[in-house]
Write a structure and sequence with these properties.
There is one protein chain. The chain is globular. Strand 10, helix 4 (about 140-150) and strand 11 form a beta-alpha-beta unit. Helix 4 packs parallel to helix 5 (about 170-180), helix 5 crosses helix 8 and helix 8 (about 220-235) runs parallel beside helix 9. Strands 1, 2, 3, 4, 5, 16, 17 and 18 form an eight-stranded mixed β-sheet that branches. The longest helix has 18 residues, at about 220-235. It is an alpha/beta fold. It is built from 14 helices and 18 strands.
């Protein structure tokens, strides 16, 4: 365990405060903060002093939606827990919540054990798990209670992907009723997959096979319809609901209406929906395949409603849904049939920087940046105040961030194990300089000093927003 570290002279930004303060780190935790230049701050002594003058000192990012090594469409996401968590650290994220998968015919325990085996000893930063529930039955429902006790307190269901992850309304209702009792949080992929499959087959029959048709068949109305249905099922069950990767203005409207009614309904969006659009899906020579994910990218006009939702708190969290597939050999599986393109984008390394750019562009404030990327995901998934803030007693997951450094995002320089960048050539201002995870240097002045196995499994309490 590292001894003491002092971070001097930076602007400490949390979801609630901005203060020029020195931060004392001891035994992997934040021991104290004191206003810079005061006798209290000058009394901090340590073996290691980090000069953060002219820098932001922010909590490590919490990415509550990643898919490392996910099996999908006959292949696997190209980032392992080792490469993916290293890339996360480079991007200023110090905790991921990944998705363990229950396969139909198997138990939740088998799925969770498999994901523990993938992650254990391989992660550069701390990690936790959600559980994907694909097979709702009496045994599954009992297992949900046990998982909540173990710190796996959220369960994802899919209204999409019939034959793979899909749950019908009855299965969804039963899982929601169980979570209402055990304190778990149901996360929903809200798209009408049954209807979408019909539109997919009709498009392919018409010879519409290019990547752009992926966006055209997965209609915004079918995201909104499923969002509405999930909200009402949760209301019937008396359960909270967290809708993942919200991409459409019409779906935001459903969430806003439910929240105005006082329901415990929450929404997440992702950087790809804020910064990319159907223009990318329509790129020629099959390049659009790089941008195939579900929910799909929408026309640009949806972006303003998503930003508005983040400002008004109709959307609370920005996660990545990081699920990378290489263009060569993986995305190419869908040449001639867009429905065979593996769904997912790389982004775990880009999220904090893109959201800082959004601060500079006037979309959100600095504190809101930290709120949607660090504090709220930590609270939503029972990790706060251990994660998501800079306060005495919190884990020393700290990022020294240079708000003036300029960078160009590119596959040539990123650390994700994927052969393209969804943001290739994009110029942004702001860059991670140094990252501490539980007081240990993972990135030190733009050098990787971390190691696989430092990151540990982190059990979670239940959602901290419930009435």
């Amino acid at each position: 365990m590292t001894g003491r570290t002092v971070i001097r002279g930076g602007l400490v930004i949390t979801a609630s405060d901005e203060i020029h303060a020195d931060v004392l780190v001891e035994d992997g935790r934040i021991a104290a903060l004191a206003a810079s230049g005061t006798p209290a701050a000058e009394a901090f002594t340590a073996e290691r002093v980090i000069d953060a003058t002219g820098r932001y000192v922010i909590p490590g990012g919490v990415d509550a939606h990643t898919h490392m090594e996910l099996p999908f469409g006959g292949t696997f996401a190209s980032d392992t827990f080792e490469t993916g968590t290293r890339a996360a650290a480079w991007g200023g994220t110090t905790t991921i919540v990944d998705f363990a998968v229950q396969s139909v015919g198997h138990t939740l325990r088998e799925g969770l054990d498999a994901w523990h085996a993938k992650a254990e000893g391989n992660c550069a930063i701390d990690y936790a798990f959600h559980m994907i529930v694909s097979d709702v039955n009496d045994e599954t429902l009992k297992e949900m209670d046990l998982l909540v006790e173990e710190g796996v307190t959220s369960f994802k269901q899919f209204m999409a992907y019939p034959g793979v992850f899909y749950s019908d309304d009855g299965q969804i209702l039963r899982a929601m009723q169980r979570s209402a009792e055990n304190g778990g949080l149901i996360m929903m992929h809200a798209e009408n997959g049954i209807a979408i499959d019909v539109l997919v087959q009709q498009a392919l029959a018409r010879g519409e096979t290019d990547p752009r048709y992926h966006g055209e068949v997965r209609k915004a109305l079918l995201e909104a319809e499923a969002t509405h249905r999930a909200i009402r099922l949760a209301q019937v069950a008396g359960a909270p609901l967290y809708v993942v990767h919200v991409s459409a203005a019409e779906a935001v409207a459903e969430l806003a209406r439910a929240r105005d009614q006082g329901l415990n309904v929450f929404g997440e969006t992702c950087p790809q929906y804020l910064f990319l659009s159907t223009d990318n899906l329509a790129e020629p020579d099959f390049e659009g395949a790089k941008y195939v994910c579900s929910t799909p990218l929408r026309p640009k006009e949806h972006q303003a409603r998503l930003w508005q939702g983040l400002r008004t708190n109709d959307l609370q969290v920005v996660s990545t849904d990081h699920c990378p597939f290489c263009f060569v050999g993986q995305k190419e599986l869908g040449r001639g049939d867009f429905s065979k393109i593996p769904n997912g984008l790389p982004g775990v390394e880009n999220r904090m920087d893109l959201l800082h750019q959004a601060v500079l562009d006037g979309h959100i404030s600095r504190r809101r940046w930290i709120e949607i990327a660090c504090a709220t995901p930590a609270r939503m998934f029972g990790l706060y105040p251990k994660k998501g803030t800079i306060a005495p007693g919190a884990d020393a997951d700290i990022v020294i961030y240079d708000p003036h450094a300029e960078q160009v995002m590119s596959a040539d320089t990123h650390h994700m194990n994927v052969d393209y960048s969804a943001y290739e050539g994009r110029r942004t201002t702001g860059r991670v300089e140094t990252v501490l995870s539980r007081g240990e240097l993972v990135i030190s002045e733009r050098e990787y000093t971390g190691h696989a196995g430092h990151g540990v499994f982190t059990p979670r309490s239940t959602c901290q927003y419930l009435n």
